[in-house]
Amino acid sequence: MAPRAHEITIGALARRTGLAHSAIRYYEDEGLVHPERTAAGQRRFLRSDIRRLSFVMIAQKLGFPLARIRTLLEALPDRRTPNARDWGRISTEIRGELDARIAELTALRDKLDGCIGCGCLSLGKCALYNPDDTAATKGTGPRYLMGDKPPAR
To answer: Residue 11 is part of a domain; what is its CATH number?
Structure first.
């Protein structure tokens, strides 16, 4: 049976998104798309699922985990094509998260050439920035890269 005009097969969805059939089935299992089934059990996707799965791919490239992507997609209408307002809400929400991540990465990048508070004390600088491994009093790991402030010099 041929799909109706607003429906596409998994093969058509794979061609449009560049995803393997197995990836599309995985995203279905994860609740990111919800195809209907024909009487013969074949999946039928909405054309709007092209956009949904494209968003999944972009969000994953931006480092968002599937659980977060699922939460974002739950705000979209399931059986109608998301409109510009729908996508605008999502982009506004993730923009703040991306801005925070960019700020965090920028600060991390800017601190990489100095002491990171790891406690190695193997560099000449460590004796200046982390004398006697004072960063250890703040906990384990690279304390200054994790947000702790080194003591004022």
So the answer is: 1.10.1660.10
* Three-state SS at 45: strand
Q: What's the pTM? A: 0.71
Same domain, 69 and 129: no
pLDDT digit string, tens, across residues 105-122: 888 787 777 777 777 767
Q: Print the domain residue range for 33.
A: 7-82
The pLDDT tens digits for 73-112 are: 888 876 666 788 988 998 999 999 999 999 988 887 877 7
Question: Cβ distance 132 to 120 under 8 Å?
Answer: no
